[in-house]
Amino acid sequence: MKRIRLSDYNPALGPLIDVQHPLDYKEHPTGGSTNIYADNLLLNHKKYLQKGKKYFIICHKGYLSKKVVSTLEFFGYDVTQVIQ
Q1: 4-45, pLDDT tens digit by residue?
Q2: What is the pTM assigned to this prediction?
Q3: CA distance 72 to 26
Q4: What is the rounded distance in angstroms from the CA atom of residue 63 to the CA atom of residue 53?
Q5: Measured CA angle at 25 (ends 67, 57), to 5 deg
Q6: CA 59, CA 72: separation in Å to the nearest integer?
Q7: Is residue 3 part of a domain?
Q8: Separation in Å, CA 11 to CA 16, 17, 23, 44, 83
Q9: Coil, strand, or helix at residue 16?
Q10: What does each C-alpha distance from 54 to 3, 15, 27, 69 come to in angstroms?
């Protein structure tokens, strides 16, 4: 699993997706990110993601983003966990 620190993330690398629940995202938003709840992203990955593009996945505590990155890697996506 690939990981980078939020301080090393640059929007030119690819989209930043925050997978927190929308209510949690309102309390702890990540600047420059798009909020797509983890369950929604995993169930509808073909709707939100394209194979061959890079995506960066973050959440407030890191547990949810780790699960999402592992699953999306299994599905063949180029994803990196962003840790704070």
Answers
A1: 999 999 999 999 999 999 999 999 999 999 999 999 999 999
A2: 0.95
A3: 24
A4: 23
A5: 35
A6: 15
A7: no
A8: 7, 11, 24, 23, 15
A9: strand
A10: 13, 7, 27, 12
With respect to residue 71, please indicate whether it lies within any of the assigned structural domains.
Answer: no
Structurally, the chain folds into a number of domains equal to 1
Residue type, 34: T
Where in the sequence is the domain holding 23, given as residue range(s)?
Answer: 14-60
24: in domain: yes
pLDDT score for 84: 87
pLDDT digits (tens, 9 = 90+) for 71-80: 999 999 999 9
Residue 68 maps to a domain: no
For the residues of 48-81, what is the DSSP string, one character each?
A: H--TTSEEEEE-SSSHHHHHHHHHHHHTT-EEEE
3-state secondary structure at position 36:
coil
Taking the CB of residue 71, how many other CB atoms lie within 10 A of it?
Answer: 15
